[in-house]
Amino acid sequence: MADAMVLATQKWLNEKYGNDSRFNKVTEDGITGWGTIYGLRRALQIEEGITSTSNNFGPTTYAKCPTVKKGDTGNLVYIVQGGLWCKGYSPGGFNGTYGDGTYAAVQQFKKDAGFDDANGNIDKDFMKALLDMSAFKLLSGGTTAIRAIQQQLNKDYYDFYQICPCNGLYDRDMNKMLIYALQKEEGIPKASATGTWGKKTISSCPTLELGKSSNVVKLVRYALVCNGVSVNTSSKTYDATLDEKAKEFAKSLKLTKPANKINYTIIKSLLSSNGDPNRAAVGCDTSTRLNQAKITTLKENGYKTVGRYLTKVSGGLDKNMTDEEIKLILDNGLSIFPIFQEYGGGNSAFSKEKGKQNAQSAYQAATNFGIPFGTTIYFAVDYDPQTADINKYIVPYFKGIYEALTSYSKKLTYKVGVYGTRNVCRILQNSESKNLQIDSLFVSDASYGFSGNLGFVMPNNWAFDQFATDIKIGSGEGAVSIDKVALSGKRNGFSYVNKGLTLTPLQKIYKTLEELFKIALTHTSNDVSKSNKLVAQYIREKNPSYKSSKWDLTGGSLDKDYKSKADKVDQSHDYMFNDPLTNEKYDFCHLMATLSAVLHLTEIPNIDLNWERVDPLVDIFAGWGGDLTTFSKDLEKADNVGKINGNLQSYVNNLICKEDNSSSFPLVDYIADIDAVIMGYIFDEDEDIASLFYDYYISNGGEISKHRSRMFVSNAYGDLDKFATAVNTFSDGLGVPEVLDVLTYIKEGILGDGESLPSSQYRDAGAKAFINFVTKEYNSMR
Hints:
The structure is a single chain. This protein is an alpha/beta fold. It has four domains: 4-130, no CATH class; 144-270, no CATH class; 283-487, Glycosidases (TIM Barrel, Alpha-Beta Barrel), CATH 3.20.20.80; 505-779, no CATH class. Helices cover 47% and strands 7% of the residues. The two termini are 60 Å apart.
């Protein structure tokens, strides 16, 4: 929005200096920008008598700058007043007279910079700070804690560097100010201080010891806050709390911190992106094709994971992997993280269309190598783009990559990773668009002077941290040049290949679910909830046992039009796979029968189920309630013909939920029942059934499914006591919801016409055995 006083400043600059060859006219738009700031700087230089002006506030401008004070009049006062208006401070007018208004505005400016008791005159240090785009008020995204640190740094160290912004944002200027402050505390002369990590700064870096006090301790506290670690910044003492905070920071970057000390490795990592480049690493990347001798060199130097390239640029360096090399690396026990970079050194290489093309090339190369689906491919942004360029070029490029990779399959494809500066990684990671999901980050921290690294905190989701480049190790045939890479443990690359990428039974089911869901989504006009239920009903009916009026009531009737469409893509699938936890053959149709009930019963309107949640009722109709009733009835039949000898409870305990399917309530039925209930709870509102299946059974080796009993009890009942109460209540036939006669339903729907419910002794024995079994599973974290 245009500002009248900024516009007045611009008009004055053009009228006063527009005909001077040393001045470049400014745009008269009333908006503060670098053009106006440059105009004010050149005006100052003209008033100083400098014959060769520039846009910079350099050493000559600084040296010649006079102090402008209360009572002064003329062009220098106009420049001060114009600078104040551009900074957002009101001097009370724009008249060339340094009166009370200008004096008060300068005082407020100085106070915001950290100088509470300063006068209202302006010297060369504050003139340099004034004629700049730096902010001295809290900006959006900034914090009061960091702003307070910035103000204190100005007060204590401005004479060693300059007056820096006080905007609450950890940025490039603040990072340099912290290094200047460290150099001053190290005793480096002002003339030799650079605000960068030179040899003298490194060699003079102190090791702080627990219990000792110094100004460097305070700087460490400042740097911890800047890196997202909350700590008291008023103390100069290295106490136990600070030691814990330093450990927290070291852990986040996988650094080794010595006991009761904060050394160079920690301090350097706090004040630069690459930290100590000489520290050990277990990861590396290289553009060199590896042979056995080079791999032996890597192993001897402690490397376990290596980054290698998928392709090469036509006519460029022969840096891409080969099948033989991959086999050799994996046979030696190393893992590989794949990198895609054909050209990434400037804005022209990045667009949405280019992203799609690169994704297709990467996908083709990865599948040809047999790299497993789900592996993250790191697409390189190998230069230092500014924030505006990242948003204009890099973000669309990665949207193109994501769209292209997910066009093959939502899950059975490759994940999108990024190699780039901290700022590139930060912006991509924080993108809220559904058309862009970054799995993990390969941060190019080695170039610590890059604008995208200096003053930026390490992103949380980093997987690989490249902190030193062009490291030569080995000799002779084993000599190899590498970049050192720290690993967070979030991603370790791939450790096997699957030539031809033959799908596992689980992956085949996932692919079928994807296809069935797409058909359902079209059939329901993009209604995700209805589409999920259609798929569950369809697969349920693949087993005739779940194709009946009972299941139509419990899980809803299958739409015949959808069925005819689905049959065209699913004509012979057996839906059989081994459970990730038990390795038992899984009854997937049983799962879908129960899940269809979960999805259907939660949609019944205007019914008070007399439960805090609806899912326990689903257990009765479609899950363990029915299985337990059938099981108890079979116990009674077995006892009647003399099959049960001895203690009834012992017999039941040894029979319920067994892996050998020797009873009417085997383990596979229990698993399918509770998995469906769990899925009903963890379903996101807009999540498709195929993705849910993938996340539950395939992702991370089916890690979620390995905690199913605990998740089932916690989600559906809250705790084991409430679960036991529900089972006993059901067994007793009490507390039945009024909307349906559950016992009659079970008698007719499960036991069949003419069969009576099992006697109470068999129901009670079954209930007790079931509670004991679930309790054991729960306590084993399964």
